[in-house]
From TrEMBL:
UniProt keyword annotation of Chloroplast present: no
InterPro entries on file: ABC_MlaD (IPR030970), Mce/MlaD (IPR003399), MlaD_Phospholipid_Transporter (IPR052336)
Mce/MlaD domain span: 38-116
PANTHER family linked: INTERMEMBRANE PHOSPHOLIPID TRANSPORT SYSTEM BINDING PROTEIN MLAD, INTERMEMBRANE PHOSPHOLIPID TRANSPORT SYSTEM BINDING PROTEIN MLAD-RELATED
Coiled coil: none
Matching NCBIfam families: OM_asym_MlaD (TIGR04430)
Transmembrane segments: 6-26
Protein known as: Outer membrane lipid asymmetry maintenance protein MlaD
Length: 162
C-alpha cells in the first residue's frame, strides 16, 4: 500500500517533468500556437526577404512586438508580401518603416520596425509602404569582388600614362 503511493507520486513527478520539457522546447522553437496576446495584422512588401521565415520575430528598438504570420509572392508585382501580427499594445504610425535585419553576422533574420512621425496610427490590415529588403551576403560579396577586380584592372591603365 505504501509503495503504491510512492510509485504514484514518482509517476506524477515524471509526467510533469516531461510536460515541462515539451512546453519549453516548443516555446524556444516558437512553435506554440496558444497565445493570450491580442494582435492585429499588418502587411509589408519587400523586393527580397532573404531567409526570413514564418514566425520570425518583429522587433522595434530590439523589443519583440509581433511575429511574421505568412509570406507570399505577389503574382502581379513579383514582390514578397509579408503578413505581420503585431501586439495590440504597440501602435505604429502610418509612415512607419520596415526592414529585414539579421541578428549578428549569420543569425536569424527578423523584421525591424521604425516608428514614423505621422500622428495617425496604422489600422488593422494596413500596409507599411516604406520597406528595405534583406542584405544578401552572397550578393554583397559578389559586388565587393566585382569592384575589387575593376580597381585591379584600372591600375595598369593609370600606370601607363606619363
Amino acid at each position: 500500500m505504501k509503495r503504491t503511493t510512492i510509485d504514484l507520486w514518482v509517476g506524477v513527478f515524471v509526467a510533469i517533468g516531461i510536460a515541462a520539457v515539451v512546453f519549453l522546447s516548443l516555446k524556444v522553437a516558437n512553435l506554440t500556437t496558444v497565445s493570450a496576446e491580442q494582435t492585429y495584422p499588418i502587411v509589408a512588401e519587400f523586393d527580397n526577404i532573404g531567409g526570413l521565415k514564418v514566425k520570425a520575430p518583429v522587433k522595434s528598438a530590439g523589443v519583440v512586438v509581433g511575429r511574421v504570420a505568412a509570406i507570399q509572392l505577389d503574382a502581379k508585382s513579383y514582390r514578397a508580401r509579408v503578413s505581420l501580427q503585431l501586439d495590440k499594445q504597440y501602435r505604429f504610425s502610418r509612415d512607419a518603416s520596415a526592414e529585414i535585419l539579421t541578428s549578428g553576422l549569420l543569425g536569424e533574420q527578423y523584421v525591424g520596425l521604425t516608428q514614423g512621425g505621422d500622428p495617425d496610427d496604422l489600422a488593422a490590415g494596413g500596409q507599411i509602404t516604406l520597406t528595405s529588403s534583406a542584405v544578401v551576403l552572397e550578393q554583397l560579396i559578389g559586388k565587393f569582388m566585382t569592384n575589387f577586380a575593376e580597381k585591379g584592372d584600372a591600375k595598369p591603365a593609370d600606370a601607363q600614362q606619363p
